[in-house]
Amino acid sequence: MSLEDLHLNLRNLTSDDYEQLKSLMDAVYHDIGGAWPKHTIDKLIQEFPDGQIAIEDDGVLVGVALTVQVDYDEFSNPHKYDDLIGHREIILNDPEGDAMYGLDVLIHPDYRGYRLGRRLYEARKELCRSLNLRAILAGGRIPEYHQHASELTPAQYIEKVSRKEIYDPILSFQLANDFQVKRLLRKYLPEDEQSRGYATLLEWNNILFEPAENVLDTRPTQVRVGAVQWQMREFASVEAALQQIEYFVDALSDYQSDFAVFPELFTTPLMGLQDRAAQKDQTAAIRFLAGFTDRFKSELSRMAVSYNINIIGGSMIEVGEDDRLYNVAYLFHRDGEVE
User: Fold this and answer.
1) Full-model pTM
2) What is the CATH number of the domain that holds 172?
């Protein structure tokens, strides 16, 4: 799938999304029962609309996170998945709860690799902060455990995943997104044969949480901008330059920046890929840079989507229809749009 074809939009789930959601859940959770019934999803949306988050691409549902509010003291202790479920498969949401509980995160198989799961997790964290809740809790499956169950206890398996000696698609992802394993849950989801019924109790702490009596009525809205100090040094190849760019984008994304800003004409060091004689003609050397612009546009758009950060691509040289050289700045949106 071409990055130029992506038009991602993060929004709240609605009842009208159910048919697409059902198809997605049936595909991802085919081994543990598939989709929730429509009345379950409708009740979630009615009781905690902000917690039901979706990512769509041109109107097609490609990622979903389902969440409820819970009492921290109750669900930070041993529990089972069924403790979240009431009569007629209604998921129990506590509007007075002081924590969020992550039920499900699903990504369409065709959209894996674009870090959409990370984007959903970040949206959950931002919601937790904005609601001044103390933590996000989750019961995490360990679906690769069945391959090691004959030689490792669940605790040993979790330790090896934590040390990156074993990769588990769910637990490894959660650990990479700043969740900590608080305890092992037994018989959490008995029908989960791959996890042998075990799960991890995971927690992400909201360090900005304030007890209700300390909370002011208003909170400032902030936008975080990361400015890249770009060293104008020679690169051995285009790939080396792109690798350095991705290093900065990754670092700024980890700092939860909304924007990564590169300087004007930041591709100038690629002039060094010419021989010395060619570099003496300054106009030709600048025109040489225009040959890299399309590739840099494609790669910067990929990074913006993958790292969930808007990138202001400094400026790059383009050759206009009139054959003149132009110094053009681009904004690469985290949803795949380029302007």
Assistant:
1) 0.72
2) 3.40.630.30
